[in-house]
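Hi R.,

Here's the chain you asked about this morning:
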Amino acid sequence: MFLEGRTSLRSVICFVRRHFRTSGYVGKHYKAFLDPMRPPAAINLMVVGTGSKGSPKSIIIDTGITRYLINAGEGTQRILTEQKSKASRLQHVFFTQMSWDYVSGLLGVALTARTAGVKKLTVHGPPKIGEVMQLSRHFADSETTDIVKSEILQKPFEDPAFRVQAFPICQLHETEEPESKRPKGDAFDHTSRTTYAYYFQPFQQGMKLDKDRCISIGIPRKVYESPLVRDLLEGKTVTLPGGTIIDPKDVTVPAPLTPNFLIIDCPTPEFIPAFKQNAALMEALGAKSGTPNLHPGLSLVVHLTPEGLFNSDDYQSLVQLLDEVGRTNSIISQHLTDLGSHLVHHLVLDGSSRLPAFTGIYSQSTILNHYFDTKAYPLLYDIQTEDHRRVINEAAATVHEPFPAVVFAHPHLQYSLRPWNGFNSLEYPSLDRETLIDGAFDLYHTTRAEAEEQFKVMRSKMAESMKTLGSGEKNPEAVNIEDDRIPAENYPELTFLGTGSSSPNKYRNISCILVKLSSEDFIMLDCGEGTLNQLYALYGAEEASRILCRLRLILITHMHADHHGGVFSTALARTRLLGSMKASGRDMGPPVVGTLPVLAPPTFARWMTTVEELFRHGPAISLFVIPNVYESPCPLSIHPPICPLKPESPRYAEWTSILNRLKLQVGPVRVPHTGSSWAFVIRGERSALKDTKFNIVDGSESNDWCIVYSGDTTECDDLVQAGQNCDLLIHEATMGDEHSDLAVRARHSTVGGALRIGKDMKAKFILLNHFSQRYGRLSPLDKFIPNVAATFDFMRYLIKYDIESTWAFFTSLSHSSLHEKTFFTLLQVNFKDLLRLPFYMPYYKYAFSKHWDTQLMKTEAYTWRKFRERSADQNSDTNPSAPDEQIACS
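And the predicted structure, written out as tokens:
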């Protein structure tokens, strides 16, 4: 008790010192902000995403003090993180529809805001928007900021920057076609019959300080940059210590007017009459306010529409109406003369932009592809060919005039309202190959020339090891092919769409693995937020759509958002595609189930039901709850402890039909992480491999392949037993070994723990996955282990072999005769790409040296901090009577 009291006293002293020191600092330098705030000095609107394939349709309004987000679709959190947007200023989110497309990223945004210190996030719009966050609290991986629903539908919202009015826009009539005869896609194209328009009126500044006048009459800089400015702007006379009297009229001038703007969302042509006939909206645009620093009118309209709708004749009639309202009611044109012939400007977010909203992924993809492996690390779609790169570069080079009539949005586009400078494009990162590669190196860490020397050493070691394999000599670093029985099938093919944990960063998205079972069958292992964007980024719209239509199953390990947050977006995109194809009569290939089968823990059922009720998207998922179709807990008599199927389940026949169709066996294994966390043991059939050139038929004893996916877990004996002798273990390695205390606290595994599990399991190959974002670009493991590699986003390992090219590769490496039988044995028992990956492990740090050095410094700092804490605890135990005066605050 005595020691506890002393610890408490130390905490109190530290708190008091920090509190008064911080309070004094704030009072001295930010006194003006403790009073009622004046309108902000700057207002800028920036495009976050345009709604192109897989990206959100969203904008952000920044006043330098507060940020206002318009819609928070899936991927918003990652874009804001990549752009280093100051989440600490984000305080308001406005939603234009109660649509999953616009709300799916709210949880991620709330997590980011909480991390940045935002205690309250106010949401505006649909009445039930706040319920989404309330439902998510039971599975959110960490504490989020408090979500508060505003009363904007009852009265205008006001803060120091804006007065905002919301206008519900209801579709006036339904389509005449009976619902039973409508294509299924219509259920998703007409998800909400109400959208919300927002009319933003900035509070005008009134007067502003003219620094040139201050300088001309000799006012010191420390005066006109001090809180005394507040008194001058309020019309008060200021007397300086020397007796000089400053009259506000001598140093202030009227501030330029700031334009009003309107945000409208028109999801279908049926909404156009509702906008034109909404008397409340049209009246508000021209109404004069009783507040002197508000003015009527309209100078900017932000349109959220489907692609192609804006240029239709019906929609152009709405545009003309808004132009007329702007010309008739705006007083701002009387004060500005550089607007050209357009008094109202239109910004269109319709998803037509070719510029990617995410850019960090292109750097990662290019470097891995260039220096390591073109097959395992494919280039992303937008930079795969010269034609693709040219389209991107031309779009990025577009320069907009400040005040054109219409601009179609693209990422990084900005509209400045205060000062009113109109449109301007922030510099878009170059996706040129050489630029991306050069950007990874610098003089302070590793130069490109130094790194390329190391890569030569890497290739030399790999070639030497391959020669040893061919000649039969023993090499301690060579892969032991005698012990490996990894099958050489055309399928499965694994593509990692997300390899990070908790939340996405610039280079790693959160958990998802795409498994290609055949040319017509795909499944996913987990599906974190942003999976859809990753799919489009890698494959392009056409191929990604083909994959979505052939997605047969998603397996969810547990109910943390980084493992299931992308399920609904993926399922909705799939259902829309199928509906569109059916409506147009296009061939969908083999029979496709309308709803997407998902195997998930019990909590997912409640989440799915509520989401479908709130968003009225219609059925997109066919849910199979693990304990309903498998016996859980696993009976003690069953070894290994893989939960068996439950024949008495009402959905047993349906579930086994799906597995039989895919020629799969899926075995859940309970693992310790959350209350209901699972790993999966997945087995699939493989036919005998026959090669006509060598006249060899595979004689393997086993006729199936086995992959174990750990999900999130600590080291687990049940998983070791369940995965014995598997071909591939994909195991989470969230933390480095130096952070083992954090791993224990969060019930995750370390790199060392994952390797121990793989060794005890006798796994043929181990892929480390699910890295903490403290290892945002590369894993903490940097040594060669023959059967171990680390995952990266978009990493793909192919089990499909080109016999001719592989034979040429191995014969070119070996000076001695490589027997056909030896070659084919090597080909048969190893995944071609997995064989290479361990050689790369010691060399990734040269490609990403800046990030590697930063990781090492942070790890060292953490280790020393823990050492000091342990030392302090030991000292307090050995010196319990140390005087209070010696207590120090860090």
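The chain has two domains: 43-173+183-206+256-425, 460-847.

Let me know if you need anything else.
M.
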